[in-house]
User: Which sequence fits this backbone?
């Protein structure tokens, strides 16, 4: 059949629109603030071979896992066994998914008995069980300490739910109402995608739909080939270190060699160190996702991503390493390491394509959770939990300063309001400041870190938290003589006097009335020698 | 009664003059569209008003009511040309505007253009004070702190002051005390207090809202004062009202209390006009689509009304003031077509705007735009543009399309032009779908109301793609927003923080809260000169499940408050709205109040629209244009808008040409002229 390029370009809008509608449907029907406010979910459409055709641009870290999950899941449940109305569920990090709280759903789009496309949604659920509320736990030794593991299964068979499976899920996690509600929101999004794809197939007929789909993927491949071509033949190796501080005081090494071929890019992670007995291992789907993110951020930041781009990217991921761990490695805190995957690829690309790159950004990702009893109102004390995520400095580009106080690579989380925090529990934000001088010096300077100070208004609260980039050997890296970003840090100042430094993974520290927690992200690095 | 309305846009100012039936003169409606001229200047509008009144044989002294919508506030915000303002915040929050919520504007990009705060760090003053989450003072204001703050204010030499202190919505005493000191030392300085502008939690959103109001307030005041003086000089003695962002109008005196309500004045007119048009046509549901030069505005009209949005993020600044629920996307007649590195045709987001303008304007633009494509396809007649006041150059349009689209894609100029229209259309279809999904609309039951110069060009194409109920083209699509100004009523809004569980709150507290709001707004309507019988009040409560993050603004009918608070009735309304918006509800979960608010309106009398008559004889002519196949032009009839009288039905394909717009009707569609002159386009044959 003959297809004009305009037919393809109109189809690009139509297919993107479907992913967007799935996204709006999911968000509208969701129960949890993690979806509503933090937008920690993703929606996409795949073809029958598992190539991602379109996605709604939400959290990059989740979007990239769909194709990997599809490849693994179809090894267990062959695509020939998918029927109209089915919903396939999986969250198994060793079956192509990410960490256990990210539950992946797929549903087939079947037209006249033929599987034409697949819808997919991924959502971060508040809790999937395990020893700690929220499931994420850097000190877990194995994935078995990370809550409920769902291997690939049919949650719905030809439109009918598996009530036994739903009962098992509900009984194994802490907030079944929220999880069931959010799962239903995911299903609603899948159904929206199915319906709308069927409309498009009716409009263009099967062959017309498939031809347009292929043309859209081919265009992306042409685009990325064109974007890579000026750098053909270039190659660069990079390494970074990140903190462990859960299984060992010794930092962990990530290494990559990036080579640009003829319209291709190879990232070989040989030299990255073996997996460890902590929750920081990065499952292979997340590694692939973040490597793709880094390439897109440099070469095609404003393009709609699909697997046409990714055809140009080849990854070599050493087995049993930090970024491709063997079961039953623990992976629940992989978000710290997955940012490092992006960072190390970007470090290599900064040498290869300096005009499109920046110096090292903060991937310090300071987070904490605090809980205990709130005695401020009359009557029975009320149990509360709250927490925060801090952004920091982005690296400077050649000729442009890095942005200050932003959440970087892979996620894009909002800072919680101090007033909301104090209304939620006995924790007061005393100050929120950009840290002067925290950006790396240079011809262009890195962005500034954020420091937030929290005062505790009750006795006996328990605080735990994670961050990285706290040491001279792990801070954001400067380019071309630019200075490093200032390190991230966390410490407590006690009401009775005295300052207590904390390590990058601190768990179960007690705080009392008047104690203050100081949390600080890393600054972005500078580019070029400062004059 | 003689009324005049002027809506200033980025490119053109639209003016409409209505002489009512009861006047001594024959009833009539006159319109004009003139270039806006220099930003913030009143010269363009003065001459536009003089021109249209003179053409009708009148002077400004004959005009009873003048309603004005303008973009001075939003332009000052977007170009960061606002007033020099200072912001006073609690110690420790000096970076509040710069950090914001730490979200990167572009998720996939390494280079981030974080919006510049309206008040730079150097003009943010920190003061020692503290109020806790229960409204109790934890750190009082000291004399020393106040005088240090006043000294800093003096050094900054500001034109306005914004104050946003901790938990001011629970306890405004610190803001009030500080304001009193500033007022006594700097009596002429406008002061905006966060507990009055935006009495709700979240320090960044409240500070940003208050700071933005202080930033644009003096600019808006200067503009309106200047215009008022000019109008007086021209003999105007009637009533002068300003369009608000929430779809109401206000006197200048009232607007000065919170000039933030005038910020998106320019977005409201089109929506109010769409509501009125729909009502005249006896219809209930529509999507209003106003396609301008650089952007398109979309709004959903459900059950005859458009929703109010409580927060809008403009250029990265959250502004928590009620505005009409309009979405803006960057697709307009001036959007530039280009071919990306992979060989795909893209339209926008860059726009040729008014300067240099589309290539066919011949004013220096060399990049092809949607307007250029419409010229090449024959949809726009070069000699008829803007009623012949402007001639379009088809040669320049072809040249731009050939060089930037046809050559790189190896297709003909006609195919390129058709492609540009199809891609632009696909983007607008995508935007309408998104609006529909987010607002829960069934598009098959909604009409599309296309306005703006470019809306009716491809409105029929969009309605067809989306299988909408039909297309409703207003009599004057190009000046539709100005028409809306004449349909709006006076409006005041007020709100208070009110945090109590629905189950246990004392009735008297709720009733007293609403009573206070009604008393305060009634006093404002009294001051506007609105008689009590023309005053109307809508009560709303912000409610949510205990433990939930998001509030819903629930309309509270007075009957649920008569003889005590009908808790069950309120809960039912909340659950129904929850289900509509989120798709689920849990009637067993407890509910709490988060705030009370009121919308007070004062009905305005206005001129009835002049009856529509056939204004000229039919002189339909044939033209060959490209409608659905770039290789095979179609011969269509071109009709003058003024020749089409009520009741007439015509089968497509055809074009309807008028000074302010061109409507395209596709094969398989027909049009029907309604009593008010609007064109209804439906699928099928007449």
Assistant:
């Amino acid at each position: 059949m003959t297809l004009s390029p305009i037919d393809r370009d109109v189809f690009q809008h139509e297919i993107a629109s479907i992913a967007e509608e799935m996204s709006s449907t999911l968000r509208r029907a969701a129960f949890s603030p993690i979806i509503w406010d933090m937008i920690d979910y993703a929606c996409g459409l795949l073809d029958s071979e598992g190539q991602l055709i379109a996605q709604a641009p939400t959290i990059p870290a989740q979007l990239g896992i769909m194709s990997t999950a599809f490849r693994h899941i179809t090894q267990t449940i062959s695509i020939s066994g998918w029927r109209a109305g089915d919903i396939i569920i999986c969250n198994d990090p060793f079956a192509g998914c990410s960490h256990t709280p990210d539950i992946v759903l797929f549903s087939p789009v079947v037209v006249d008995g033929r599987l034409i496309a697949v819808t997919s949604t991924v959502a971060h659920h508040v809790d999937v069980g395990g020893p700690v509320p929220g499931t994420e736990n850097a000190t877990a030794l194995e994935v078995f300490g990370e809550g409920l593991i769902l291997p690939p299964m049919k949650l719905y068979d030809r439109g009918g739910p598996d009530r036994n499976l739903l009962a098992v899920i509900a009984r194994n996690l802490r907030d079944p109402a929220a999880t069931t509600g959010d799962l239903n929101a995911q299903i609603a999004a899948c159904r929206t995608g199915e319906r709308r794809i069927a409309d498009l197939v009716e409009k263009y007929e099967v062959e017309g739909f498939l031809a347009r789909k292929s043309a859209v993927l081919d265009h992306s491949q042409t685009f990325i080939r064109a974007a890579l071509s000026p750098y053909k033949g270039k190659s660069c190796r990079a390494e970074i270190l990140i903190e462990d501080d859960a299984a060992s005081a010794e930092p962990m090494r990530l290494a990559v060699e990036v080579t640009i071929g003829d319209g291709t890019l190879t990232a070989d992670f040989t030299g990255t160190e073996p997996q460890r007995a902590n929750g920081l291992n990065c499952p292979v789907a997340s590694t692939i996702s973040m490597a793709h993110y880094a390439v897109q951020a440099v070469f095609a930041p404003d393009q709609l991503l699909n697997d046409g781009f990714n055809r140009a990217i080849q990854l070599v991921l050493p087995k049993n390493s930090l970024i491709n761990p063997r079961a039953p490695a623990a992976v629940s805190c992989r978000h710290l390491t997955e940012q490092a995957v992006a960072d190390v690829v970007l470090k290599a690309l900064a040498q290869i394509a300096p005009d499109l790159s920046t110096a090292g950004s903060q991937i310090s990702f300071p987070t904490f959770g605090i809980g205990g009893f709130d005695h401020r109102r009359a009557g029975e004390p009320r149990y509360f939990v709250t927490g925060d995520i801090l952004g920091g400095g982005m690296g400077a580009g050649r000729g442009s300063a890095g942005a200050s106080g932003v959440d970087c690579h892979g996620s894009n989380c909002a800072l919680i309001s101090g007033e909301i925090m104090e209304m939620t529990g006995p924790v007061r934000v005393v100050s929120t400041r950009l840290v002067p001088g925290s950006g790396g010096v240079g011809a262009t300077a890195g962005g500034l870190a954020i420091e937030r100070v929290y005062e505790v208004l009750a006795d006996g609260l328990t605080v735990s938290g994670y961050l990285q980039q706290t040491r001279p050997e792990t801070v954001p890296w400067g380019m071309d003589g630019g200075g490093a970003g200032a390190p991230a840090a966390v410490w407590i100042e006690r009401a009775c006097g005295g300052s207590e430094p904390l390590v990058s993974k601190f768990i179960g520290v007690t705080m009392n009335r008047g104690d203050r927690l100081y949390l600080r992200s890393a600054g972005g690095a500078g580019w070029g020698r400062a004059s | 009664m003689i009324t005049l309305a002027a809506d200033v846009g980025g490119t053109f100012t639209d003016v409409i003059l209505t002489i009512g039936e009861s006047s001594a003169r024959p009833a009539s409606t006159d319109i004009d569209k003139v270039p806006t001229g220099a930003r913030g200047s009143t010269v363009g509008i003065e001459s536009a008003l003089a021109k249209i009144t003179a053409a009708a044989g009148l002077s400004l002294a004959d005009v009873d009511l003048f309603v004005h919508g303008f973009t001075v506030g939003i332009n000052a915000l977007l170009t960061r040309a606002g007033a020099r303002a200072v912001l006073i915040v609690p110690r420790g929050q000096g970076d509040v505007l710069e950090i914001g919520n730490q979200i990167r504007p572009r998720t996939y990009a390494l280079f981030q253009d974080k919006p510049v705060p309206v008040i730079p760090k150097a003009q943010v003053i920190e003061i020692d004070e503290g109020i806790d989450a229960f409204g109790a003072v934890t750190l009082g204001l000291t004399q020393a702190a106040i005088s240090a703050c006043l000294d800093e204010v003096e050094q900054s030499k500001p034109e306005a002051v914004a104050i946003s202190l901790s938990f001011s919505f629970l306890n405004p005493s610190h803001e009030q005390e500080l304001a009193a000191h500033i007022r006594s030392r700097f009596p002429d300085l406008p002061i905006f207090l966060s507990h009055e502008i935006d009495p709700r939690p979240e320090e960044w959103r409240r500070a940003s809202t208050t700071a933005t109001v202080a930033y644009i307030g003096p600019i808006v005041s200067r503009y309106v004062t200047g215009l008022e003086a000019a109008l007086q000089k021209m003999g105007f003695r009637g009533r002068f009202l300003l369009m608000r962002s929430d779809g109401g109008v206000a006197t200048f005196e009232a607007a000065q209390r919170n000039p933030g309500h005038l910020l998106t004045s320019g977005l409201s007119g089109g929506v109010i006009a769409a509501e009125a048009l729909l009502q005249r046509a006896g219809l209930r549901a529509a999507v209003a689509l106003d396609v301008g030069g650089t952007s398109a505005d979309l709004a959903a009209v459900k059950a005859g009304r458009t929703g109010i949005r409580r927060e809008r993020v403009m250029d990265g600044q959250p502004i928590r003031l009620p505005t009409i629920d309009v979405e803006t996307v960057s697709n307009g007649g001036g959007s530039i077509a280009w071919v990306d590195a992979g060989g795909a045709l893209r339209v926008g987001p860059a726009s040729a705007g008014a300067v240099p303008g589309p290539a066919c304007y011949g004013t220096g633009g060399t990049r092809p735009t949607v307007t250029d494509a419409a010229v090449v396809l024959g949809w726009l007649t070069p000699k008829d543009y803007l009623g012949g006041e402007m001639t379009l150059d088809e040669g320049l349009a072809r040249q731009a399309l050939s060089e930037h689209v046809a050559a790189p894609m190896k297709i003909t100029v006609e195919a390129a032009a058709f492609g540009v229209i199809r891609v632009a259309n696909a983007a607008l279809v995508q935007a309408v779908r998104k609006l529909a999904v987010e607002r829960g609309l069934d598009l098959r039951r909604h009409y599309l109301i296309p306005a703006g110069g470019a809306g009716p060009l491809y409105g029929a194409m969009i309605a067809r793609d989306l299988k909408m109920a039909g297309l409703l083209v207003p009599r004057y699509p190009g000046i539709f927003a100005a028409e809306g100004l004449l349909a709006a009523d006076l409006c005041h809004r007020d709100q208070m923080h009110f945090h109590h569980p629905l189950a246990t709150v004392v009735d008297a507290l709720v009733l007293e809260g609403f009573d206070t709001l009604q008393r305060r707004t009634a006093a404002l309507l009294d001051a506007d000169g609105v008689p009590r019988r023309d005053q109307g009040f809508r009560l709303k409560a912000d409610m949510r499940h205990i433990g939930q993050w998001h509030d819903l603004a629930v309309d509270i009918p007075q009957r649920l408050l008569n003889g005590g608070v009908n808790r069950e009735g309120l809960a039912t309304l909340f659950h129904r709205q929850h289900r509509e918006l989120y798709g689920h509800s849990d009637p067993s979960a407890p509910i709490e109040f988060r705030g009370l608010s009121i919308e007070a309106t004062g009905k305005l009398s206005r001129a009835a629209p002049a009856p529509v008559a056939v204004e000229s004889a039919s002189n339909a002519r044939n033209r060959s244009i490209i409608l659905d196949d770039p290789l095979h032009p179609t011969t269509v009839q071109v009709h003058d808008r003024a020749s089409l009288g009520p009741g007439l039905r015509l089968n497509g394909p055809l074009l309807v040409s008028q000074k302010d717009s061109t409507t395209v009707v596709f094969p398989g569609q027909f049009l029907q002229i309604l009593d008010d002159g609007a064109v209804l386009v439906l699928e099928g044959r007449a």
